[in-house]
Design brief:
Helix content: 10-25%
Strand content: 15-25%
Strand order of the largest sheet: 13-14-15-17-18-19-20-23
Number of strands: 23
Shape: globular
Radius of gyration: 25 Å
Number of helices: 9
Largest sheet: 8 strands, parallel, barrel
Structural class: alpha/beta
């Protein structure tokens, strides 16, 4: 007989350990096997790097991946078969050892435990002739570093992350596309001898099974290196409606909530490497997204920031990125595969033209992701199509230029050429269509930054008319992902974040656009 367990979140932990909210007896269930998280889209199941795996309706859920549940779904944890229906988890009596009320403090007995737990325990004692032999400690070879740490240290679900993590005072850094210097702590015991560079390989990367179709996503470009709003290069003299310090967890939490309210599903944070401010703020972004469906990733700038990096350095940075973050339940995934965005593709070491840059990226991917377990999205227009021999999708960062203020009108051509490339390769490629509210970097020349030199200019917002024009064009290309550029780029002046000059107009417009896109136009 199945026992119903009401789910009262935001997090319900499943496993064999006595500390879990739902304790299961099956020996193939890991001590901390999976969690159920409540978000805007309902309940979702996240595998915590279990040894024997998790399945929904017979389909495997990768370690750290999330799967939204529907009524009648069958969940398999090891050999335990559970059922989700009516906002409850139905567990066979012979499998359930105990259940605390979801959301109660650890050790607090729930209504189910008080009402039925003793009866279940008695039945199990009568039916079991001898105690099962002790289980060997599990060696989790599938979870990423973050999943392992979460499994070992989790004591109770975090209902709402603290939003008062105000950083200690630090020297101000101008708000520009130039983050602080990247620093990596030296290894204890003296200098580390760098490993010998890997020999380049010309072995082509085999394409993986086709990228599956997914739900329509709206992402927004995001920058996490601001703290001084009185500097000369802030666009148009405007400033956020609530000026903030990018290291402030409370400000990040507020931005996540604003984005969710506008139908945005995640941020793409510009990331320049391990130990940098952008790295710690990406960790904060994931933390402040807990308990929501908000899933973010990074835009990789590490390969050119403060000088081009060697292919060894780029590969090492990407390995670190994936090992630390890809297993997080709020890291962006498509079809269960983690997603990375890249920018300025031609600024990789050893490149001289697109063909050389493509070959350099192919070598990096061979070292980091040879089986294409992740999804890599390249940046560029139709001239960047050669990168799709290595990458899995394409987006255009800018759809407005000084010499072509209506460059967004070329999006249909780019989408058509990408799909022709996909047909020629016999696989699916993701098309990410960019929309922008305007552009104004006329004040940016007062300071140097990391961008490629270009004459400043302004593309007027026309009280939202230009933003709407870019959206209508992008919508007509049937994109997989709608890309808002940007949430908070204050130097180039294409932010939608609430501001002193525009209020929340562009956030509200984004909400209208996101709803139309997700409803199919």
């Amino acid at each position: 007989m199945d026992q119903p367990i009401p789910l009262r979140g935001p997090v319900v932990r499943l496993g064999r350990a006595a500390s879990e909210d739902v304790q299961l007896s099956d020996p193939r269930v890991s001590r901390r096997h999976a969690v159920l998280e409540e978000g805007g889209g309902g309940w979702r199941l996240v595998d915590q790097g279990s040894r024997h795996g998790t399945r929904v309706n017979g389909q495997a859920v990768a370690a750290g991946a999330a799967r939204y549940l529907q009524d009648g779904d069958v969940l398999e944890l090891g050999n335990a078969r559970l059922r989700y229906a009516g906002g409850q988890l139905w567990v066979p009596a012979g499998t359930l050892l105990g259940a605390a009320a979801a959301g109660a403090p650890p050790g607090s007995p729930g209504l189910i435990w008080l009402g039925a737990g003793l009866v279940i325990a008695l039945l199990l004692w009568l039916q079991t002739p001898a105690a099962a032999p002790p289980q060997r400690p599990e060696v989790n070879t599938w979870a990423t570093q973050r999943a392992v740490e979460a499994a070992l240290t989790a004591q109770a679900p975090t209902l709402q992350p603290p939003i008062t993590d105000t950083p200690a005072p630090r020297p101000t850094v101008r708000p520009t596309r130039k983050p602080g210097p990247t620093t990596v702590k030296p290894t204890a015991g003296g200098p580390t001898v760098p490993p010998a560079p890997e020999e380049p390989s010309r072995t082509p990367i085999a394409f993986p099974p086709d990228i599956p179709a997914g739900e329509r996503l709206v992402l927004a470009d995001y920058f996490a290196w601001y703290d001084n709003w009185d500097l000369c290069n802030v666009s148009g003299g405007d400033r956020p409606a609530e000026p903030y310090h990018s290291d402030d967890a409370g400000a990040i939490r507020r931005q996540v909530q604003q984005a969710l309210g506008a139908g945005i599903d995640g941020f793409t944070l510009h990331w320049v490497g391990q130990g940098d401010r952008t790295d710690s703020n990406f960790a904060r972004l994931l933390q402040q997204s807990r308990g929501t469906r908000f899933a973010s990733t990074v835009v990789v700038e590490q390969h050119f920031f403060q000088g081009r990096k060697s292919l060894d350095e780029v590969a090492g940075a990407l390995r670190y990125l994936m090992d630390r973050y890809a297993g997080d339940s709020n890291f962006l995934r498509w079809g269960g595969r983690p997603v990375l965005f890249f920018v300025d593709m031609d600024r990789i070491d050893g490149s001289n033209g697109i063909t050389a840059a493509r070959d350099a990226w192919a070598e990096v991917r061979r070292r980091v992701d040879p089986n294409r377990e992740a999804i890599w999205i390249a940046e560029g227009d139709n001239s960047a199509l050669p990168y799709l021999d290595v990458f899995d999708g394409l987006y255009t960062y800018r759809v407005v230029h000084r010499g072509m203020p209506s460059a967004y009108q070329k999006l249909p051509r780019y989408a058509q050429q990408l799909r022709a490339k996909a047909n020629a390769q016999g696989r699916r490629l993701l098309w990410v269509a960019t929309i922008m509210p305007g552009w104004d970097d006329e004040r940016s020349t007062c300071m140097a930054d990391v961008r490629k030199p270009a004459p400043p200019f302004k593309r007027d917002r026309e009280n939202g008319a230009f933003y709407r024009a870019t959206f209508e064009t992008a919508l007509g290309t049937a994109p997989d992902i709608l890309y808002v550029n940007s949430f908070n780029e204050w130097v180039e002046g294409h932010y939608i974040e609430p501001s002193a000059l525009f209020g929340d107009l562009y956030l509200r417009l984004t909400g209208d656009f996101a709803a139309r896109f997700k409803q199919g136009g």
